């Protein structure tokens, strides 16, 4: 038997030795450095879901101290001075754009744990109105893509992973993998290229190949497609990992119908393709704290939602009735959002005892259609043809049913936001809608879904939702599930972390 030595019988330790023993162990933890490139990020500049993801995913990742997260963006003239006044100027240099050199000034702003770098060139980015849709978008984003890599070198912030998003930053992958590999610091960088929507590929005339993009001849095969430059195709071919924003969409884009001409390219790169469902910023979209709402509420006490509904009805000139379900559509008014299905059965929908609210702008044909619908069904239907964050959140909170019948939807965030505000999604089973909303059957599920792109199938499930709304007890049970459903980045960001670690 071993006898434990009594503390008193142990020889006294020398003072110096005990001190030494107490020295904390120094662990050198090498942070993984991730640099995101994208053409927009909330809260600085936002025109769509890409901005939400860039802003909220980077913030979620920055919470993990094993990572250092940076985002590089263009310094658009329409970024609010509320932010730009706090930006710190770092340096400037010239960037090669085909046969010319263009000025790039670099500003920095640390926001919610993320290092944001902004590339300043007023000729390219200080423009009136929108941030895209100019005749020289190819040149603008070729400049940005190259300037971003040069920023990394100048500031010596070479990342472990460069994470590029959509066609506007596809050229960065191409420059990095095809032209910067002579530099060992760049050669070591792994790339993730995320497709948020495969419809927009960055297609340009071959005349711009060297003149404007400055691409070298040796990589022409990767970039050329159907006799054009196709930046998205080039990035898919050359990147280490291709990701997209939901598992279902990752499968869908292997088919010609969804891939807008790139299905062959996707299929031959399928071994490096993955789909990761987006999350939303649940601090920003929070009915308990959202100042845009008429009254705040939470899953614990949803009484405020009733007031949100009544005030919304009053504001839009609809009868203030709590017993009628409000169906909301908040969407860009473009065809792949499934608006033709709504058009196909709008009279049927509005023959029910419901109210329909449409918010969004886009193609003129849809804008006029919904304006006309609201005029013919005044007191039942309201159409607000604009993009307005504040109003959108008043509608998310005041509505009962959120209709999103997209023809295709890489991920879709609106169904998650609606859910967060306790509004029940009715969606078509495509892309991220299929991954985020499960049909309500025997008390299970968090919304209503239909499979085929068929107006009457949509009408059928919409009416199921309307009927359930009239069954107060069951509806309340569903609402409690819907509003508590976890669409945060907590789990999704971990999937990205593992992806970066395994690269
Ligand atoms: C694009 C897609 C949308 C997705 C968003 C963020 O806007 O069309 O489905 O939610 O990107 O990834």
Fold blueprint:
Layout: H1 15-22, E1 32-37, H2 49-62, E2 67-74, H3 81-84, E3 88-97, E4 100-111, E5 114-120, H4 122-125, H5 137-154, E6 161-165, H6 170-178, H7 184-187, E7 190-195, E8 203-205, H8 208-211, H9 220-223, E9 224-225, E10 228-230, H10 231-238, E11 241-244, H11 247-252, H12 256-259, H13 263-268, E12 273-275, H14 303-315, E13 326-330, H15 339-351, E14 355-359, H16 364-376, E15 381-384, H17 389-398, E16 401-404, H18 414-420, E17 424-428, H19 431-436, E18 448-450, H20 455-470, H21 472-484, H22 490-502
Parallel strand pairs: 1-2, 1-6, 2-5, 6-7, 7-11, 11-12, 13-14, 13-16, 14-15, 16-17, 17-18
Antiparallel strand pairs: 3-4, 4-5, 8-10, 9-10
Helix pairs in contact: 5-6, 6-10, 14-17, 15-20
The structure holds alpha-D-glucopyranose (GLC).
Alpha-D-glucopyranose (GLC) binds next to α2.
- Strands of the biggest beta sheet: in what spatial order? 3-4-5-2-1-6-7-11-12
**Separate helix tally:** 22
The secondary structure category is alpha/beta
Label the overall shape.
globular
Chain-averaged pLDDT: 94
> Can you list the ligands bound to this structure?
alpha-D-glucopyranose
